[in-house]
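Researcher: Structure for this, please.
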Amino acid sequence: MTIQESKTKVVMRSVLGRSMAEVVRECLELCDWEHLIARDAAVVLKPNLCTIVPDQMEKSNTDIALTRAVCEILLTRTKRIYIGEADHLRRTMGEAFEITGHVQMAKELGIQLVNFSEVPRVKVPCDPIGEIEMPRLLLEADAFITLPVLKTHALTYFTGSLKNQWGCVPQHNRILLHKHLDPLLASLPRMLRPKLSIIDAIVAMEGRGPVNGEPRRLDLILVGEDAVAVDATAMRLVGLQPAKARHLVIAAEQGLGRIKDEQIEIDGNWAAHSTRFKPGNMDWAIASMLFMSQYPWFVKYILEKNYVFYPIRSFVKLLRKVGVVGNG
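Model: Predicted structure, token format:
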């Protein structure tokens, strides 16, 4: 997959005063979605379901109303729709699907939920680690659609279309690979070949994302065929610099999308929605966790154990509150 000389389009629309279905349909039609999704195609959607903590879900997870609207439009063209996500260190996808309402939605729409950690896997080449196991379903699907939330991120500066694909890696302790995170995030779109990126910026997040930052309501969605361009546009919209997101820069350098402003055509009212977000802060607590997460024993006995992890997190929150640790 290589980029062309012509500009790529990113569509931006507000959901204020309009139904989600109406806005999503308009955005997809402007992206000529029927040209991208063949009839009876196998389509895999990947929302961001990174938490099951009730007071964090709205700002952290993809709005289920957005996912539903996308599914309802796709159902006019194909019945072979899958919504997938992989297990996390401290929650299974079964729990996440149930608590976030996806089980009920899937029953109502007749679509399938998939735990990427439980389906058959195949080994595929992946820079910079050589090989990685990925779900066969993702690699064999006719179309992959990424549905992230617009958020700043303490490790990767920004999390959007590309970072959302990290949840496709089936191993629940993929945090062990974080020392290679940026180049790995750039490798994933080459494998997954996303047809569409649909960013949920309805309730976005600034500061110490991806779950502990502050909510910012923008009431927007951004849609495009070029995931790199959609991410770069979302970053500029909230005052972030795409050049600081190393994974995005690597992907652009590898010809997987456009990152430069002059290469992107924006269809939407930029002046009405442009704002500034507080970036994530890599304080010493986060940096220490990142360093230690390369050790399997630390991940298994500290990060995976709720009765160990949560007391430590509460203590770090206290240190941030009193100013011992920087509060990003």
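Researcher: Any notable elements?
Model: The chain has 15 helices and twelve strands. The chain has a mean pLDDT of 93.
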